[in-house]
Amino acid sequence: MNVGFVGTGNMGRILIEAFLDANVLSPSSIYITNRTIKKAEKIQESYPSINLCLTVEEVVKNADYIFICVKPLDIHPLLMKIREHLHEKQCLISITSPLTVEQIESMVSCQAARVIPSITNRALSGVSLFTFGSRCSMEAKLTIKELFSHISTPIEIENNITRIASDIVSCGPAFFSFLLQKFIEAAVKETEISQEKAVQLASEMLIGLGKLIESGHYTLPALQKKVCVKGGVTGEGIKVLDSEIGDLFIHLFQRTHAKYDEDVKVVTEQFHS
To answer: The Pyrroline-5-carboxylate reductase catalytic N-terminal domain covers which part of the protein (predicted)?
Structure first.
């Protein structure tokens, strides 16, 4: 099985490196290209056996599964460019949320799927979100899920929860790293702890929290109750969080959904034109 990557920016490179680290793909089975070819060349420097292609058509010619890792507005013109080179046994896999598999299928004769990855997949963990097109064969579905099962937990979703699922899985690491950074900054500002020590303690705490949740020993509410001693310090901190966070996350989701709706509108206009 040969796998192609059109676009080797942040997420394209993360997927390539994760698959290689997980030993689920070999460098010689991967075909890559990028609009700025130097980005693809840097990957080949790390993995000399990887196949560097100067054109998208070359990737399409050699790959059975083709990941489209470009910006949403670049996908329509890309599909126009390669549609005549695709055949029904191939499968296009988009990793962008504003584009539906139905839109891809409306332009090409091959199979289509959407997989929304997460930066956590680089650590061979986290979740990847799946939506399959109507022409996607059972063989293709199983192959793609098997591929991602080595670097994530694959979960199928419906179109109507695409944005919120992406917010949690894909955007979540950025949101919570931002909160963790603010947590650290406040600790350094209000006490005598050093930045280095605060980062070390907070990072190890978060890793431990993740493992604790993964173990299944506690639900999130149970974990809070376990740490909170009646009349203790943690309880006072929780009171502050409860009173000051308010509708923070509601506003966050409202903003991400508004941006998503804007992107969907523009992409839809492309496909209807």
So the answer is: 3-97
Within a domain: residue 267? no
Question: Same structural domain for residues 10 and 137?
Answer: yes
Distance CA 130, CA 98 (A): 14
| Count of other CB atoms within 10 angstroms of residue 89 | 11
For residue 63, is it within any domain?
yes
Token pair of 71, please? 């910006």
Q: pLDDT tens-digit profile of 17-62? A: 999 999 999 999 999 999 999 999 999 999 999 999 999 999 999 9
* Torsion-angle region of 216 (φ positive above 0: left; ψ -120 to 50: alpha; else: beta): left
- SS3 of residue 93 by DSSP: strand
* φ/ψ (deg, to 5) at 114: -125, 130
Query: What is the side-by-side strand order in the sheet with 153-156?
Result: 51-52, 30-33, 3-6, 65-68, 91-94, 111-116, 127-132, 153-156
pLDDT of residue 273: 73
What was the pLDDT predicted at 136?
96
Give the CATH number of the domain where residue 212 resides.
1.10.3730.10
In the chain, which residues have pLDDT < 50? none
Angle, helix 10-21 to helix 37-46, in steps of 10 degrees: 20
The domain in which residue 151 lies consists of 3-157
Residues 6+ apart with CB under 8 A from 229: 235
Shared domain for 58 and 183, answered yes or no, is: no
Instruction: Indicate the pairing of strand 127-132 with strand 111-116.
Output: antiparallel
Token couple for 224 = 């809070």
Are residues 196 and 147 part of one domain? no
Give yes or no: residues 93 and 175 share one domain: no
For residue 16, is it within any domain? yes
Cross-strand partners of 153 = 127
DSSP at 123: G
